[in-house]
Design brief:
With 321 residues, the protein is α/β, with parallel strands linked by helices. The chain has twelve helices and twelve strands. A five-stranded mixed sheet has the order 7-9-8-11-12, with helices on both faces. The longest helix is centred in the first third of the chain and has 14 residues, at 2-15. The chain is globular and about 65 Å long.
């Protein structure tokens, strides 16, 4: 995935002379995860440049660049570092196009290394999708594989809208085939495994975990469909309903805390559109209502295979009355 993102950024810079990359250590170092490795040497320090350690400044500068006709691709080094920039993201980035009646579009693609799974210190692992998805004017997307990362980033970086691009940092080293010529439909959700008994709905790093669960469940004759939501704002309600209508059961899996997490919105959409066909209430398997932990405690917090299997068991065993 790291190489796929790097290639997508390189091609974006080559294709769009107004595209610029900025952030902490993205230039000479190539980023803490080496996503921008070699790009400054190839395109120059005017196109790929380091900033001070000030996320509010990174996003404020990005807003100004967009107003001047550029297409900034800023990076916040870790998701937990995005909080100081929330003011700029919510009050400027998300609203400037609306505020200016369309005269000042915000073609900004904010890359956010996201979620946990790398045993990092505090503030280096978060799950902020519900925060961003709640803000009108922002689009939010999270890839689950190298192929998706390449095509979704290129699509996001070509849009005239502000896009929050949430990269699952625990999957940066995941290997997989990337068909650069055929990305398929860049919009909406995607069924990555077909099944008939229950739909597992996930995004980012949790898609791979749900695929592991599906393999194990198949050993007991349970056919699990795995739906990669991909776009978290807007959510593909039609694709979501189509999958759950086939299986008639749904389990949503995400790393964020349970209360007011994006899984609640997904569950509401499923209930609205599939109420007559659902055989069980929508189940949520999530993180807990505590601050995202660091280090070894991640293993207790992030939904694991057993917790997801128990979620599947609950919806399969549910009986009305």
């Amino acid at each position: 995935m790291q190489a796929a993102l790097n290639r997508a950024l390189a091609e974006t810079l080559a294709d769009n002379p107004k595209a610029v990359i900025l952030g902490e250590d993205v230039g000479r170092l190539g980023g803490v995860f080496r996503i921008t490795d070699g790009l400054q040497q190839r395109f120059g320090a005017d196109r790929v440049f380091d900033t001070p350690l000030a996320e509010s400044g990174i996003l404020g500068l990005s807003v100004g660049l967009a107003m001047a006709g550029f297409h900034p691709i800023p990076e916040v080094q870790f998701d937990g570092f995005a909080y100081p920039a929330v003011n700029q993201i919510v009050t400027q980035l998300a609203r400037m196009n609306y505020r200016s009646r369309g005269t000042l579009p915000m073609p900004v693609t904010l890359r956010v290394p996201s979620f946990g799974g790398i045993r990092a210190p505090e503030h280096h692992g978060e799950s902020l999708e519900a925060l961003f998805a709640h803000v009108p004017g922002l689009l939010v997307v999270s890839p689950s594989s190298p192929h998706e990362a390449y095509h979704l980033l290129k699509y996001a970086a070509a849009r005239p809208d502000p896009v929050i691009f949430m990269e699952p940092k625990s999957r940066y080293w995941q290997k997989g085939e990337v068909d650069t010529a055929d990305g398929g439909n860049p919009l909406g959700s995607k069924v990555v495994r077909s099944g008939k008994h229950v739909t597992l709905i996930a995004w980012g790093a949790m898609v791979a975990r749900c695929l592991q669960v599906a393999e194990l469940a198949a050993e007991d004759g349970i056919e699990v469909e795995v739906l990669d939501l991909r776009w978290l704002k807007p959510i593909d309600a039609e694709g979501l309903a189509a999958s759950v209508s086939r299986t008639r059961r749904a389990v949503v899996v995400h790393e964020a805390p349970l209360t007011s997490g994006l899984g609640a919105e997904v569950a509401a959409l499923v209930t609205e559109r599939c109420f007559d066909t659902l055989r069980a209430p929508v189940e949520r398997v999530t993180g807990f209502d505590v601050p995202y932990p660091s280090g070894d405690l991640e293993d207790e917090y992030i939904p694991n295979i057993d917790r997801i299997l128990f979620g599947i068991q609950r919806v399969l065993e549910y009986r009305r009355g």
